[in-house]
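Progress note, sequence design subtask.
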């Protein structure tokens, strides 16, 4: 297990890359989810306005 965690002596380079990748993916997921939520709210608002006419 320690051999895996040390990554052949490159752990100082490999693990931060994994961390940055995970952080970037989490950020993309969060912003996409937030935008989808906002778009759904806008669509509902526009549908309500259209039905009132």
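Output:
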């Amino acid at each position: 297990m320690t051999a895996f965690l040390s990554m052949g002596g490159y752990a100082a380079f490999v693990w931060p890359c994994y961390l940055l990748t995970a952080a970037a993916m989490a950020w993309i997921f969060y912003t996409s989810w937030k935008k989808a939520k906002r778009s759904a709210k806008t669509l509902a608002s526009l549908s309500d306005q259209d039905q009132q006419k």
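The mean pLDDT is 94. Work on this subtask will continue into the next period as scheduled.
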